[in-house]
Amino acid sequence: MRTPFRTVTGVALLCAALAFPAIAETAPAGAIDFGKLTPAADGGQFVEVNIKGNLLNMAARLAAKEEPEIADLLKGIQSIRVNVVGLDEGNRAETQARIKAVRGELDVKGWERVVSVSEKDQDVGIYLKTRGQDAVEGLVVTVIENGKQAVLVNIVGDIRPEKLADLGEKLGIEPLKNLHQTSGKHTEKSRKPETSEDKK
What we know:
Blueprint (H helix, E strand, L loop, with lengths): L5 H13 L27 E7 H11 L4 H7 L2 E10 L5 H17 L3 E7 L3 E10 L3 E11 L3 E11 L4 H8 L2 H4 L9 E4 L5 H4 L1
Parallel strand pairs: 3-7
Antiparallel strand pairs: 1-2, 2-6, 3-4, 4-5, 5-6
Helix pairs in contact: 2-3
């Protein structure tokens, strides 16, 4: 997966520069705590972006003129959290266990797993927390790629289902870009050994 997250990272840097104070709030229904993630010992990639509330509203206003599509997508979103973690022998098992625990928590809490991909080089799980049939109030993307990188994304707010693919496109979240192809249905994919029946 490409991990530019340029828009998100840019907003985070802007918010840090403005030093806007964060306001403590009760976690909304769509928020998930990923816990503490450990960086790779070799100094590999480690990115954490956590933007909430008024900072997102400010970002939407700033983007309204030059990037109105992004501003429209940000409306109604309460928080965005993105973690990108490079993996090595020191943190791979711990991070994989953390992602497994997060997925288990989502299953227990009744989140809908809309995409599940398990292949040799990629492990993807995308979950939605819906409110009725017309709104998504929480999105979680979990990815382990080539055993070398983990990506976790949590977006909270009033998200229109038909805009999820656009959100993935604008924020650089690869698995989300093709989410419209699932048409809201559960999708699973796993790589199995080829058999003689498959070859016919």
